[in-house]
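Follow-up to my earlier ticket, as requested here are the two runs.
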Amino acid sequence: MTILQVFSAFVGWMHTLIVFAYLPELTDDKDLLMSWTANFHMLQYVALVAFLLYMLGMNYVLGFSEQGDDILASRTASISSLIIAAPCYVFTWTRLMKRRASFHRLPQDSSLLTVGFVKVYRSSKILYQRHPSLLWFFLNVSLVEAAQQSIATISLTYMTDTLQMTATENGIAILLLFIFGIVGAFIGKMSVKIVNPILSNQICQVLTGLNTGMAAIILYKPGQQIRTYIIASIWGIGAGWKNTIERFTITQIIPKGQDAELMGFYLFSSQILVWCPTLLFTILNEAGVNSRLSLMVLIVFFVGGLLSLWMMGSYEEVVRVAREESSDLDGGDSKNDIDSQQSNGQTNDENVEVKE
């Protein structure tokens, strides 16, 4: 079972990386790309809510809730997700996605099994030397994504132990989080018409951090379900807003031609610290620290994320650098090679095809 879970996670992340790598290629119109990114996230949240309602209905009809058979309910969820998702995967990747040429040619005497590690090492050095804004952005993603993903786990523990909420009440709170994620995605979409994406992200993180602090202050005893639902709804807005604006930003600030590689950096950054807030909350909780104070640990991650965004500098400058130095991460771009061949009178159709 463990091997299957590891394999499933590996394939899932590989698919996610490929999908994210395609984002910058969809269009050069940034307004259209922002709209599509927001719509993607809205559809994701709609799908989450629909599947949650579907499983609640299945559990009721098949009697899993009354029997308390969580294993059978989990099997039903897995089979249902396979039946629903598999045709979508097959149709999308075989019918909707068009063939495209590769960005780079595999260097001579290199292997696909090792060249990726070499490029990641080389890109890391160049990022440090010439693209510090990207490193600050990845640090922001690491910190804020860790806090954002931990909210669901930590809040469930907090609602159950401190607020004494039932499983149904917890389910309502999670459902509201998903529903208001749609609202957050729409807010993120509209925000870039008023402010730049970095400032929009900062406002979003201030909202989520303040909401987390407010939760620790006003939620402290049983019978506060309405307050909890409001807090959960604002968390949902923050999650939808953050995901939309963050993924639009990364499509604008990475050098062209390195989409898959730097999207890999982005996804790696989004997972590297997800264990940390939950671990800190558990340690403090087991040590007898008031759970309200333990909940406020999340604010530290949001503050760190805000500082990271501030260190990025001007959004316009970051975009300009990405556009002008779109080939730096390739260690000597193909265009320059072709230009060199032209100056030596060596260019022909075959050479151009190879370099492309």
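Run two:
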Amino acid sequence: NNGVFSRTVEAGPRTGPSEDMIRNTIFRSFPRMKKIYLITIVLLIILTCLNVLIMSFWNIDTCTVSSSRADILSEQFCNDKINLIASHVKQLCPQVSNKLSSVQINNIASNQLKIPWLYLVTPTYQRPVQKAELTRLYQTFLNVPNLHWIVVEDEMHKTKLVSNLLKHSGLPYTHMNIRTPQEYQMKETDPNWLKPRGVEQRNLGIAWLRENRLHQDGVVYFADDDNTYSLGLFEEMRYTKKVSMWLVGLTGGLRFEGPIVENGRVVQWHTLYKKNRPFPHDMAGFAVNLQLLMSVAGAKFDITVPRGYLETSLLVNLVTLEDLEPKGMNCTEVMVWHTRTAKVDYKQERKLIEADKYIHYI
């Protein structure tokens, strides 16, 4: 053809995959990729749900009990809180909510309820610093699991201030009141050591426990509202078998006072005031096993005893020196202090009252 040499070359068999083969391979692998993608999403959802569950668990102990009926925290109340957490989990990841509800949440509930309960009895009375003292106290208690706060006012009626504070505290509590007999009431100018204080209120707390406790295992501690408490103290006392003891700071005219321990046993006392008392120790320095306290009929504080013998009036009915359980590194570590708030000087406030500019709030 016009002198041009031409040659036709026939194409041989192809060695690479055809377009049809590639297309078929992609479509066949798509279900497998889809499964991997879905599994990845489910795993991410599970991790998110577990994170929400763990964060919610830390707040399980902040169940509030209504003060109107002097209710108490029960296992059912905590179960209601746990069910609330479960409902949040179901909204976030319904695919795994059943497993989380039946396994993880139930394990958390059982572990929470296995911890012995602490019953803290706090006497309180009206004074300018009362709300400040109680606020500091409950915000400490919020960090302690399985704690039930028994607050007893030295009043003829429950006050609005304490009722509102307890209602908003986030703690399980019981709110009661009983007035100290007239002959034992202190005047504002009396020194704080002149007469025993908080005796009737502590005894009412003990009486309430005899009739209303839901937990057979637990520990009773008399936590005054003018003290400062280390969080470690509550874990030290939680497993008390009979009566546990530790040092108390800033009391008795000393930096601290309390038991002296040798070979793991209390042998004598570090104090200078009436050292011959059977138990020359401070109210803040001991806790009592709930079963032991309930097993001794009539065990309570005696308001008629001489000054300094109030703690002894209860303890002599429960234990001997050999039964005491030293805590706080064998009574070498101070974990509670008497830090009374200074009396408030209202001289400027009186000027507002005289000028009829007084503002009332609680």
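The only thing I checked on run two: Confidence is low (pLDDT under 50) at residues 1-11, 56-77, 92-97. Let me know what else you need.
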